[in-house]
Amino acid sequence: RQNSGQWLVAYQNIPSIISNNYHTGINWGNKNYHVTSSFYLKFLNNFLDFNNFSAYQNYINILDEYRASSTGNIRGMEILLRKKTGQINGWLAYHYNQTKYRTPAYNKNKKYFANHDRTHEFKTVAITTLFKLNVSISWVFSSGAPFTQIDDLYLESGSGYEIFVRDYYNSDRLQRTHHLDLSISKSLYFSKARMDIGFSIYNLYDRKNITHKRYNPYSGTISITDVAMFGITPSLHTKISL
Asked: Is 0.70 topped by the overall pTM?
């Protein structure tokens, strides 16, 4: 099922998720730079992926089939480099993650990517002062989210509008996303009060980034549309501190 936003009534055969977690990291820094890195692994057992369940009234029988059999495998690393001094300071951050699940009798018993999986994420922020103005610019890059092609989805007769998967769940990915953001602000002082005023622009080059696919089963057949992030978006902000 594509929509995992559902509730299950308490049931004795719902297993407790068991996980083994491994993590290590390195931190180093001086007055000018700071570097942080971490590496992690996570192995899940008795894992229940709600995408596997069909109609609510049938879930108890399905639980008996899947309990204590589904597994998950999560691995990744994070690296952050920060520059703390100088005319221009800021940081670079890279995150690698791969989250895969396996459930018997589902997706041909092959591993599939979790809905929230983003293999690569890169962020950079530069901060400086220009003409007594605080200026920051950031760029964010991310791998596309996994999704299921419409040819692998169907409506089962008698199930209402429940969407089912044939064989290949989350076997494709959306295009990578990236956007450039700019912020300019200034601090003003009035007696005991401080006012910060600023102007920012999100997605400066107006990139059309697709976050996910929306599936519509209510027209007799399944249709699919792209859901996009905001395009170029200017905003103003004011903050007063006493």
From this structure: yes
Q: What confidence tens digit (pLDDT) does each residue in 177-204 have?
A: 999 999 999 988 888 888 989 999 999 9
For the chain, list the strands marked E by DSSP.
18-29, 33-45, 71-83, 88-102, 112-113, 120-130, 133-142, 146-147, 153-155, 163-165, 172-173, 177-190, 193-202, 210-216, 223-228, 233-241
Structure tokens at 17: 């998720």
Amino acid at 106: Y
Residue 85 CA to residue 139 CA, distance in Å, equals 20
Three-state DSSP class for residue 3: coil
Q: What are phi and psi for residue 193, nearest 5 degrees?
A: -105, 150
For residue 52, report the phi and psi dihedrals to the nearest 5 degrees: -80, -15
